[in-house]
Write a structure and sequence with these properties.
The protein is of the alpha/beta class and 427 residues long. The chain is 34% helix and 18% strand. It has three domains: 180 residues, 3-Layer(bba) Sandwich (FAD/NAD(P)-binding domain); 109 residues, no CATH class; 71 residues, no CATH class. The strands form eight sheets. It has a five-stranded parallel β-sheet with strand order 6-15-7-8-11. A three-stranded antiparallel β-sheet has the order 1-2-3, with no helix packed on it. Helix 7 runs parallel beside helix 9 and helix 10 runs antiparallel to helix 11. The protein is globular and about 65 Å long. GO terms for molecular function: flavin adenine dinucleotide binding; N,N-dimethylaniline monooxygenase activity; NADP binding; trimethylamine monooxygenase activity.
Length: 427
């Protein structure tokens, strides 16, 4: 702790031991260590990408400009005319915060974005509705055009993205949705304006593509993402090209003689990163112990190359898009390596209520503690009562005459059983 990793190099007898020489620095003093294994957990957001060469005229702009990673507090925008370049989650969050104190806020986006509310259908959290085994089965098995139509339909139920200038270009590409509850109302009330990509900067203004008028601005926030780099590693250990690290299952360098170095958290799943990083760590620790074996090098390299092609086809190669993956499918894949993937069909015979809850309900991390290493006796009960804990903080007032919870429960049970009978009847 409180130190910087200067370098990680193979120990002289790495081929036999798999050990690593690690040099750290603290207080101006360097120290060398030898470790049996290394986890690299620097994540996606360590090195900002600021391609100023892509913005003509920025060198003569007299106002202030900085990358979103430098942003700390909205006071810097007090009374200013603010331009936010980029429309990821950070860009939208900064724009919303800035609009509360700034004179004017503009978001510039070249490709638009799908916008989701954290408060989803019937007021439930979005990921507990969308990240279910049923939804994952539908998303991964629908034909491409039908899947794209479904996404368009679903995200436009909240508001029409085209009317708000947010409709993504090349919407057939799978993009990470932006999560923000306030942006539509701020656009509707004029607190935030959406503009196309930047064409050119002037001394105190900016010119957008397909917009003849110049926009006066004082501050530019570049929300242009991050680059992947490992300055403490030799390039031969983890190869990075086109912002893609050549890693088996986004974790292991396939060419190492000994699998004693792993990269954790270098992934952008369509869901929470915490369960993914935990699952990666569970798998990696067992590989380090020799309890799990990796495939041969040729097999891993072939999969890495195929993954690159698929990412280009489905996700594109803009900024961090190459790191995106289907959340539940990836979790299940890693869980199967360590014997922790739940068997829905098996449970249907022994514990049907739990099986139905796992299949139709949210895929919470408890599911991966039902069996295998790290098995937890309380996992079943935690799964069956997860909605109680989600709703308890919101039910601080129960209106008189509210419907009986037991009646609602019976309705849900009946619907799930009916749906299960229909689905399994066609299997």
């Amino acid at each position: 702790f409180q130190s910087t990793v200067v370098s990680i190099r193979k120990h002289p007898d790495f081929a036999a031991t798999g050990q690593w020489d690690v040099v750290t620095e603290a207080g101006g003093k360097q120290t060398s260590h030898v470790f049996d294994a290394v986890m690299v957990c620097s994540g996606n957001f360590s090195e900002p990408s600021l391609p100023l060469q892509c913005f003509p005229g920025i060198e003569r702009f007299r106002g202030q400009h900085f990358h979103s990673r430098q942003y700390k507090h909205p006071d810097v925008f007090q009374g200013k005319r603010v331009l936010v370049v980029g429309m990821g989650n950070s860009g939208v969050d900064i724009a919303v915060e800035a609009s509360r104190v700034a004179a004017k806020v503009t978001i510039s986006t070249t490709r638009g974005a799908w916008l989701l509310s954290r408060v989803f259908e019937h007021g439930y959290p979005w990921d507990m509705i969308l990240n279910t085994r049923l939804m994952s089965l539908i998303k991964t098995n629908l034909p491409g055009p039908l899947s794209w139509w479904l996404i368009n339909y679903k995200v436009n139920q909240w508001f029409n993205h085209e009317n708000y200038g947010l409709q993504p270009e090349n919407s057939w590409l799978v993009r990470e949705p932006v999560l923000n509850d306030e942006l539509p109302s701020y656009i509707l009330t004029g607190r935030i304006t959406i503009k196309p990509g930047v064409k050119e900067f002037k001394d105190n203004s900016v010119l957008f593509h397909n917009c003849p008028e110049e926009e006066p601005i004082d501050i530019v926030v570049f929300c242009t993402g991050y680059t992947i780099s490992f300055p403490f590693l030799e390039e031969s250990i983890v190869r990075v090209e086109n912002k893609h690290a050549s890693l088996y299952k986004y974790v292991f360098p396939p060419q190492l003689q000994k699998p004693t170095l792993a990269v954790l958290g270098l992934i952008k799943p369509f869901g929470a990163i915490m369960p993914v990083a935990e699952m990666q760590a569970r798998w990696v620790s067992r590989v380090f112990k020799g309890l799990c074996q990796l495939p041969p090098q040729a097999v891993m390299e072939k999969e890495v190359n195929e993954k690159k092609k698929n990412q280009i086809q489905w996700f594109g190669l803009t900024f961090d898009e190459v790191l995106k993956t289907e959340w539940l499918v990836y979790l299940d894949t890693l869980a199967s390596f360590i014997g922790a993937k739940p068997s829905v069909l098996g449970l249907l015979c022994t514990d049907p209520w739990l099986a139905l809850t796992i299949f139709f309900g949210p895929c919470s991390p408890y599911q991966y503690r039902l069996e295998g290493p790290g098995r937890w006796q309380g996992a079943r009960q935690a799964i069956l009562t997860q909605w109680d804990r989600v709703l308890k903080p919101t039910r601080t007032r129960v209106p008189a005459g509210s419907s009986s919870s037991s009646l609602s429960l019976l309705t849900v049970v009946g619907f799930l059983l009916l749906l299960a009978a229909v689905i399994f009847g066609f299997l």
